[in-house]
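Issue 218. Parser rejects a valid record. Input:
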Amino acid sequence: MDESWDHEKNRKPEDKIWYEQIPCHGKGFIYLKSDTRCAAYIPSTGVLNNLSNALATARINHHVEHLDGEGFIYFALADLKRAAKVLKAKIRRKPLSEDHKKKLVEAGAAFRFSTGQDGTKQGQISTQADCE
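Output the parser choked on:
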């Protein structure tokens, strides 16, 4: 292969799904393994065993691959939503509405430093004499 070939530049938009990862609580992540299979990387074998038992309890067909101190769990793409709940996948936060943003700005206004007319920051004491 040519060394000057840039794999990032030559990536097609439809290939983006193969580079996606869903982070999980506990430093692991879920990713797409093939068109029909998903995999979860788990950095600890103790957690791996616990999650494998939890997946079995949830009746999710899976396969566990143990490596030295880490492992992988493979499961069907159809079971992704159920497995994500068991693996405690982090949910992406929904974008805030404009009304909600406005309320948050108003609520935080009392705690925000702003420059006053005399050049000092409001909310801060400018000299030691002001303390007395």
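Fixed in the parser; the record now loads. The chain has two domains: 13-86, 98-131.
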